[in-house]
Amino acid sequence: MQLLSDRILNMSTSATLAMAAKARELRGEGKDIIGLSLGEPDFNTPDFVREAAIQAVNDGYNSYTPVDGYGELKDAIITKFKRDNNLTYTPTQIVVSTGAKQCLANVAGVMLNKGDEVLLPCPYWVSYSDIVKLYDGVPVEVKTSIDTDFKMTAEQLEAAITPKTKMMWFSSPCNPSGSVYSKEELKALVDVLVKYPNIYVVSDEIYEHINYGQGHASIAGFEEMYDRTITVNGVSKAFAMTGWRIGFIGAPEKIARACNKMQGQMTSGANCIAQRAVITALNEPPSRVQYMIDEFKVRRDLILGLVNDIEGFKANTPDGAFYIFPDVTHFFGKTLRGKTINNATDFSLYLLEEALVATVTGDAFGNPNCIRISYAASQEQIIEALKRIKEVVS
Question: Where do the Aminotransferase class I/classII large domain residues begin and end (predicted)?
Fold first, then answer.
């Protein structure tokens, strides 16, 4: 009898976390590693949010929380959805979880049966595929390219649908590409989905406010999709609260109740102090964190200029999030400093070992031609990192 389950043996390790661990290991050896691998803002959590957490401690919040979140937090989430997305939810349609990742796992756990197919426009966030497989679903990759800004077309969606298709999962703004679907582009997808009323959508909108272009559109805002969409969001990115671990969903009531039931047997309610702080965060207008968005845009323009100055990198201009996702196929088959580059994984490891810059291979995101570079780092670090990269690939 084997010790570990097939479930865990067949699961991939998160590539982003693995690269971060490797970078920490090299730092421990005294190497000056610049980390551009993690999707984590380098800002402090805003003062007004931290002060709310301190007040919650002083007010004696230390007990178990309701499984699906404090009522006051659910009210704040409802207000946020209406204010920012023009989506109307009731408290029974909201579930607060320990991060958006748990939201996704809850949804997969309550909706997928063995063999159900989930469409994943590529590139997709690194954990989507393994979460789907964990609950016996079948991830179906829909390939896109840098030439279409890594966005799936209506024709591609239609071609990927089969009788086994149960769901579609996507993020906008997208991790890892930074692509943002416009309202018109979403409408084209909706026109396909209305022909298949049994297909549900997970819309991951965690980067909603980190948007530099046309603004944010939610697929649940289309009347035909409201009852078939699970909108996932949280505070980790826009409010620089990654370690606070609070995510939430707005969903059809039956799905929300099922997620509440599953969470009740898995983790119960999310952290009490973090929830109290998030009430304050969400009740404030998004303009309170605009200074971070403005700085990310400056960094985006900076890193694009530097990357485009390196022969062999091909990058588009992302409209959201804080990543670029350049095509690096120019280097495949080449030998650099005695090391042969066969794929994006080789190239990403080469940059870590030779340039001392941590990035993430696009293989982890369903696109083997690219690497993900985070610009959630200081301008000085970005300039130095790209200088090092240019030196080791020239």
Answer: 31-389
pTM of the model: 0.95
* Residue 19 domain flag: yes
**Each residue of 194-251: pLDDT tens digit?**
999 999 999 999 999 999 988 999 999 999 999 999 999 999 999 999 999 999 999 9
The answer to whether residues 253 and 383 belong to one domain is no
110-145, pLDDT tens digit by residue? Answer: 999 999 999 999 999 999 999 999 999 999 999 999
Using the 3D structure, point to which of 253, 288, 323 is the last residue of a domain. 288
**Tally of CB atoms within 10 A around 83:** 13
Question: Residue 18's domain is classified under what CATH number?
Answer: 3.90.1150.10
Question: Domain total for the chain?
Answer: 2
Q: How far apart are CA 41 and CA 46, in angstroms?
A: 12
Query: ∠ at Cα 301 (128, 374), nearest 5°?
Result: 30
DSSP secondary structure string for all residues of 167-178: EEEEESS-TTT-
Residues whose CB is less than 8 angstroms from the CB of residue 82 and which lie 6 or more positions away in sequence, other chains included: 88
State the Cα–Cα distance between residues 326 and 335, nearest whole angstrom. Answer: 20
On whether residue 1 sits in a domain, the answer given is no
- Assign residue 273 a region: left if phi > 0, alpha if psi is -120 to 50, beta otherwise? alpha
Residue type, 146: I
Q: What angle do CA 181, 172, 300 make, to 5 degrees?
A: 90
Which class for 339: exposed (0-12), middle (13-18), buried (19 or more C-beta within 10 A)? middle
Position 137: which residue type?
G
Of the three residues 270, 288, 306, the one that is the final residue of a domain is 288
State the distance between the two ends of the chain, measured CA to CA, in whole angstroms: 53
Residue with tokens 């063995």: 114
Q: Select from 168, 227, 173, 170 the least CA-distant residue to 192.
A: 168
Asked whether the beta carbons of 117 and 157 are under 8 A apart, the reply is no
Q: Are residue 275 and residue 354 in the same domain, yes or no? A: no
Residues 281 and 310 grouped into a single domain: no
- Distance of alpha carbon 149 from its chain centroid, rounded? 17
* Region of residue 352 (phi > 0: left; psi between -120 and 50: alpha; otherwise: beta): alpha
- The parent domain of residue 10 ranges over 6-44+289-393
H or E element at residue 115: none
The residue assigned the tokens 């998030």 is 278
Report whether 295 contacts 189 (CB < 8 A). no
